[in-house]
Amino acid sequence: MANTSNLQAGDRYETRAVGAKAPQSVPSKTAVADQDPGFAGQRKLVRPTLSARALKEGAYGMRGESPLFTHQALVPTGPADEASHAEAFYFQKQMQMQTLMAFVLEDGEVIEGYIEWYDRYAIKVRNGSRTLIYKAGIKYLYKVGESTGQ
What we know:
This protein has 150 residues and is α+β, with helices and mostly antiparallel strands. The chain has helices at 29-35, 52-57, 70-74, 86-97, and strands at 4-9, 12-17, 100-105, 110-118, 122-126, 130-134, 138-143. The protein has a domain at 84-143: SH3 type barrels, CATH 2.30.30. The protein has a 5-stranded antiparallel β-sheet. The chain has a two-stranded antiparallel ribbon with strand order 1-2.
C-alpha cells in the first residue's frame, strides 16, 4: 500500500499518495481563446436560412417533406367539419327544450340524461349526477321518446 499523507485544502483534508504529482490546472477561457481564434465562449445555435420558396412550398429536400412534419398531415386542419354548424344547432336546441337524450357509447352502454353543456370534444349530461361524455366515445344518440328504428 502506498504511503499517504493528509494535506489540508481549505476546510477539508485531501488524501494524496506521497510523491504523487499535483493535479494539472485546467486552462482558463482566456488561455483557450488565445490558442484558438475561432473560440467565442458559449456554444450558439446555428439555424440554416431557408429560401422563401422552401418555406412556401415546404421543399425540404429530394424526399419530399421533412419527417418532422409528417404528423401534421394526419391532423385535420381548420374547422372544415364544423362549417354547417348543424351539430351546434342541434345540441343548443336540445339544451333549451330540456329534451331527455340517450347516448349509446361505442361499448354498447346507454346513458340517458339532459344535455347541460357541450364543447368541441365533450358533452356534459345531467342524469341524477353529472356525467362527462367524450364525443369520440359516442356511437349515436337519440331522443328518448322517439323509436330507434332498429
